[in-house]
Amino acid sequence: MAEILFSGKEYSCIREMLEARERLILSPFASFAADSKGRDRSEPKCDIRTDYQRDRDRILHSKSFRRMKRKTQVFLAPEGDHYRTRLTHTLEVSQIARTISKALLLNEDLTEAIALGHDLGHTPFGHSGEAVLDKLCSEGFEHSEQSVRIVEVLEKGGKGLNLTKETRDGILNHQTSGHPATLEGQVVRLSDKIAYLNHDVDDAIRAGLITEEDIPGEFTEVLGFNVHDRLNSLIHDVIEHSIGKPEIEMSPDHQAAMQGLRHWMFRNIYVGGKAKAEEHKAQQMIELLFEYYMKHPEAMTSEYRMLMDKGTSRERAVCDYISGMTDNYAIEKFEELFVPLGWRVL
Questions:
Q1: Residue-wise pLDDT tens digits, 224-240
Q2: 320-345 pLDDT per residue, tens
Q3: Count of domains forming the chain
Q4: Which residues on neighbouring strands pair with residue 9, listed in sequence order?
Q5: Nearest to 225 by CA among 207, 211, 208, 240
Q6: 3-class secondary structure, 72
Q7: Which CATH number fits the domain that encloses residue 142?
Q8: Which member of 188, 231, 252, 327 has the greatest number of CB atoms within 10 A?
Q9: What's the rounded Cα separation, in Å, for the pair 206 and 9?
């Protein structure tokens, strides 16, 4: 490749030019690709893409990413095509996080990589499936840890995706209890909450479970009176209170209102609401599948049997197998194993 001229200097490849551009335009608090702590396995650099761009592309092309399109977000088997899935949630988190990162002059590529990978480890049937596996497995099960396990071990036939340490740190620490090491990870951590709270309200209204008027005024008066205004308000608030600072934060009033609305959603939608009426059935399916594969590990596909051959415990391999299933595939395997052929709905 010919020498590339940028800002009065020559660079041997596009990647080096992009890394130099980051130095010129990004905030001093941003994560610079050239300063990455690297990958567990050393590999040649790409001549076109930075390391964080490669992370994003590897996640986007992974099997685990594609499977999220058929995994529950909140509503089990909703009637209609407009309800969120785990994949559309991930894309909404990515969009919000990129908007915030771009405004704060952070590394948008790292932000996008973390956002696209943060929920790869989610089970079928949403958090209800996660809770069952955590109860059944003596080693425990937590979806953020499983997301990291996917990119480190399970993808590409046991080789993993060999992502940078910064991307894996952001994925691992995207939950409320997490403490991301980068501002990009902090942006995704907050964007995840902003996304799921607002799209879950939107889906609940669409399903007729609540109306906009049901939402307490103490929250809407601060955040806004519809989904669009609440998203706009929260994103602006994060940007305004984080710009030029070494941490990502919100104003106290927006933080309190968002937390209050989240607790209200837990009481009215997430726990005990009509959206969860069928949840116990999904949990029983997961439990029966777990028990079956613990007794019959040979019934799992070869990649999971190979994990056990390499020293992975049977419990962990069974969790890996079940958590990787889509909702539809879990139901299909349940019917195959437990429902007499003549009784199945064809």
A1: 999 999 999 999 999 99
A2: 999 999 999 999 999 999 988 766 65
A3: 1
A4: 6
A5: 211
A6: strand
A7: 1.10.3210.10
A8: 188
A9: 55
| Ramachandran region, residue 59 (left: φ > 0; alpha: ψ -120 to 50; beta: rest) | alpha
Pick the closest to residue 3 from 12, 266, 187 (CA basis). 12
**Burial class, 341, CB count within 10 angstroms (exposed 0-12 / middle 13-18 / buried 19+):** exposed
Phi, psi of 85 (to 5 degrees): -110, 180
> Contacts for 288-291 with beta carbons within 8 Å, 24 or more apart?
288/334, 288/337, 288/338, 289/322, 289/330, 289/333, 289/334, 289/337, 290/132, 290/133, 290/136, 290/137, 290/318, 290/319, 290/322
From the list 245, 330, 249, the residue with the least C-alpha distance to 286 is 330
The Cα–Cα gap between 203 and 82 comes to: 8
C-alpha separations of 258 from 126, 205, 251 in Å: 22, 18, 11
> CA-CA distance, 73 to 196, in Å (whole number)?
9
DSSP 267-300: IIIITTSGGGTTHHHHHHHHHHHHHHHHH-GGGS
146: amino acid identity, one letter: Q
Which of 1-10, 12-21, 34-43, 56-65 bottoms out in mean pLDDT, i.e. has the lowest?
Answer: 1-10
What is the separation of C-alpha 188 from the centre of its chain, rounded to a whole number of angstroms? 9
pTM: 0.94
| pLDDT, tens only, 177-210 | 889 999 999 999 999 999 999 998 998 898 888 9
In tens, the pLDDT along 107-154 reads 999 999 999 999 999 999 988 899 999 999 999 999 999 999 999 999
The count of C-alpha atoms lying within 13 angstroms of the C-alpha of 89, restricted to the half-sphere facing its C-beta, is 30
**DSSP labels, 185-250:** HHHHHHHHHHHHHHHHHHHHHHTTS--GGGS-HHHHHHH-SSHHHHHHHHHHHHHHHHTTSSS---
Give the domain extent around 135. 4-343
How large is the average pLDDT for residues 79-105? 90
